[in-house]
Input
Amino acid sequence: MGFALDAPVLTGEFVRLEPLGHRHAAELAVAAEENRGSYAFTWVPRADEVEAYIDAQLGRAATGMLAPYAQVSTATGRAVGATAYWEPRSWLTDDQLDAVEVGFTWLAGSAQGTGVNAEAKLLLFRHAFEEWHVSRVDLKTDARNDRSRAAIQSVGARFEGVLRNWSRSWAPGEDGRLRDSAIYSITAAEWAECRAGLEARVRRYNSRADSLS
Output
């Protein structure tokens, strides 16, 4: 069958990644409606779609191909977004995970720029490289999504190219159409440098929070 993803709880200073469940629905419904200005190319449910969104992610999880998370703010204890491990790939042996994607990521407007995204990526990448011993983590986004592409590059991932007509478009008015996907990656050889950069970013957010307290 190959490697089946799971979603262990991952905890940091700003964010706790919890396996996604319907207990998060009410808080995610609020988070998704805060400010939708940055969601033009991203699958983010409306408040009345959150239950169906969770069902869809849990359905994917049941196949072993997705490990979905709620992103929970440690400051408030409330779910402020979602993310996931996706598409595990085992090329050498069935029981060794060689590569995985981090995706299905979104955050409430109030959680953006607070350190949650940087720390969530640190937690996800660290678990993938240091516990699963993957050779590669990749991230994809709509090639037109400049904001998302900048965010991906900011966490240390390297641009590899654009895959044309690669996946479903989530842009408004584009139901039934395919999008071009920009693909980025981090390899095991690059992980130490990437980790140091992410840890430094999280420390800066901690320093900023200390200065405001």
Q: What stands out?
A: The mean pLDDT is 92.
